[in-house]
Amino acid sequence: MTQGPDPEVRPPATRLVGRVDDLSFIRGFLGNADVQGAALLLSGEAGVGKSAVLDAVAREASARGVRVLRAAGVQFEADISYAGLNQLLVPLFDEFERLDNPHRDALRVAVGIGGGPAPDRLLTSTAALLLLRLLAAETPLLVVVDDLPWLDRATNSVLGFVARRLVGSRIGFLAASRTGCDSFFEAGGLTEHRLGPLDCVSSAELLALAHPDVSPAVRGRIVAEARGNPLALMELPAALSGEQRATLAALPTVLPLTERLQSLFAARVAELPAHSRELQLIAALDGTGDLAAIEAAAAGRAVVDDLVPAERGRLVSVSAGNRRLAFRHPLIGSAVVELATAAQRRRAHRALADVLGDQLERRAWHLGEAATGPDETVAALLEETARRRLRRGDALGAVTAMTRAARLSPTAADESRRLAEAAYVGVDAGGELQDVSRLLAGAWLAHPDTGQQSLHAAAAAAFLLLNTDGDIATAYRLLVGAIEAGDHGFDAADAALVEALHLLVLLCWYAGEPELWKPLFAFVDRLTPASTELLWVLTRTFADPARTGSSVLPRLAKLIAAVGDDPTLVVRVGTASVFPDRLGDFRWATRRLIEQGRAGTAPVRRHLGALMHLGLDYIHLGRWDDVALLAAEGLGLCESHDYRFFAWYFQYMQAVVAALRGEAATAAALCEEILRWAAPRGVQGARFFACHARALAALGAGDVETAYRQACVLNPPGSVAPYVPIAMWSALDLVEAAVRTGRTEEAAAHAAAMRASAMAELSPRLELLVLACEALTRAGEESLALFRRALALPGLDRWPFDTARVRLFHGERLRRMRATAEAREQLTLALDAFQRLGAQPWLTRTAAELRASGRSAPDSARPKPGALTAQEVQIATLAANGLTNKQIAERLLLSHRTIGTHLYQIHPKLGITSRAALRDALAELAELAELAELAELAELETDQDG
Predict the structure, then answer these.
(1) CA distance linking residue 761 with residue 876, whole number of Å
(2) In the chain, pLDDT over 70 holds for what percent of residues?
(3) 17 HSE (CA, 13 A, CB side)
(4) H or E segment at 326?
(5) Mean pLDDT over residues 120-148, rounded?
(6) Alpha-carbon span 308 to 290, nearest angstrom
(7) Which of 88, 601, 922, 930 is deepest in the core (most CB within 10 A)?
(8) Is there a contact between 53 and 185 (Cβ–Cβ < 8 Å)?
(9) Cα separation of 417 and 64, whole Å?
């Protein structure tokens, strides 16, 4: 059996991907070689990257001033004695004169630059060792040898001799050899480090660096096939066509090999007997390793014993216990398929289909691969396979099966219909948007009438418009027009119609325009015999829940109880649960879906949906660090799968957390990015969410005027804005800002509108907000009673920030009514919660209230140097010196109302609640600033001394 030397694997960057631990081990092992010498053998399978690791180690050594000597085994020089030693010592020919005559002459003859009889092997080995030691006494040496098995026998003998005698020599020795390959090098007693395959993360990273044009789904397939082999990761994409690199559905069952990979694997397979190759061909195409099925498919032509030569050649392993056959590397199976003719492959597929009669999906697939032309029977089986795969969350597998069904369709209309459905599945769940465009084009080309009328095609096209540079209005008109023109008869059992209506729900919500909902409700009402339960509930809890959501809560509870593990159902029930605050009722299903997405076993769109829902859930739960992680994960998926439209969801999550933590600049930048993206596309829904985050950030900064304006964008005071459900979350912001800016009538009107709606019936959290708004707009004991009612609601520990915020309001009101002891109790509870959450602006404000009640607050709640702007310091100083707002305004050429707003912002920043406390607070702030300046000067002096 012939084997060539390992090909050199060079990633497209100087950094070796996935080899941090290996390089760390080698550095550590050879680290003392400069002082005492060391020898290490590196082993690994073909293409695993041994040469790249040797290169990296050699580069690092050279950078440290170590002299590096290199040699590599070459097949055609393997029979030339001392050819490898010649390679190694070429740079040292002039140094031979340092040796005494016998050793010098022996070495000169051995490497071919001197004449005379062949030298004694021991004399030559000793001469080489002496020469290296002499040189290492002046400069440390590193001897690097690649492909030991292909070095000649004499050189291997010398290197083995040298490697065992390096102690105290300042010489490092590093050599690489292919696992399982015989060599003349005697490795006994030397340390060996096995270079393993890359892990999945590193494999994906290397593939993305080397082939950024390959789609994420195709990358996943290549990573699975390469099994961590860097050469395979680099080479496999090169054997694919442009369409195959972009589209998972276009990939063959077994990936083709480049010539380079064939040289590693195919040559070994070609030497096997025909019967052995046939069994391996069936095994490669079967893909399960089930020996019983493989034997049955090969009945009469080959038997298991025919695999013995392949086992001996370490190509396959056969487990007698569980009757399984496995290739030592997946690319061996690819090589087997590559060497087979098309007729042989079709025969193997037919044989497998014959023995898999009770397994519809596998049988349909093999029949499809065996087909030589259109076949409606096989196409129908593949279409059913696609539906089964979709039901269990395998969207990409469904697209692949439906695409194959389309290609086998005898009629153009069926081909177009199936391609359109494949396109919709791809865009709705799969994450292969490049593939969607190709499939849609194919649907229209196959049968223009069917392609244009297909609801699947319209839905896919609408989403593509949305995700690129199109706008909501165009996508909406396209989908509504297709629904109106369809021949579905509004049959509730028509899957394409139901899917189109689910997408229309989202388009209406994204648009944020009430009138756009009317056609949707009309379509749903026309469904016969009746709308699907999920669609009906969704239109009530997601569109305008403050008016229609409470009536369907029992039906939503039944959907939640039956959610199961269908990724589409989990996400759609989640969407219906967002505004009634029911996401926590099946958090386990959402978390499981995220884990499946991370493992690559759930559709990307569904993975994104689950991340959104869990992030929103965690915002209310106060798990803000987790929100940040989920948002980062979501943004990464949006970027890698080109789901640009959904990025704003995750930016909103980041903005809200920043606002709640008092990171106003971060929140502002994120909101600005959302608005800049949403405005030209007409995505009002994204704008509303950004305004919610802006209102929170403004409240945290004490800018109540801005908070009021932003909250009013969502909902003008005095009514509950229809079809803007995020307005429920910002209702308390609006009322608080209205009260603090003196707009008491607007605040009262808005609290009354909330009470008149069904908002309080949706969840305890929303009822808490409604009662708090009412309490803020009432006076005296009536206000306190409302606060007590709010804080007596069940399950408030699930909403720590909202609850703490209401406790703060309650404590403020109690203190002003001279109920100091009760005020301290509420404020202390609020302060503890804000401190746990890291809600710094609210923590500072609560601490100020506590101090005003006569109780001290923790240092973490005290004002920080730089908390005020230069203008705020000027205004605060003038106010502390006794000037009125009007006098300050005249001096600074501002309006007295502006001065009042500034002071309203300054008080919580300084942790005070009255003008009388300004002087002390400014003195404390100046002292802190002076201390900070002294610390900075001390640090500068230390740096200069250093």
Answers:
(1) 45
(2) 88
(3) 26
(4) strand 324-327
(5) 90
(6) 17
(7) 88
(8) no
(9) 65
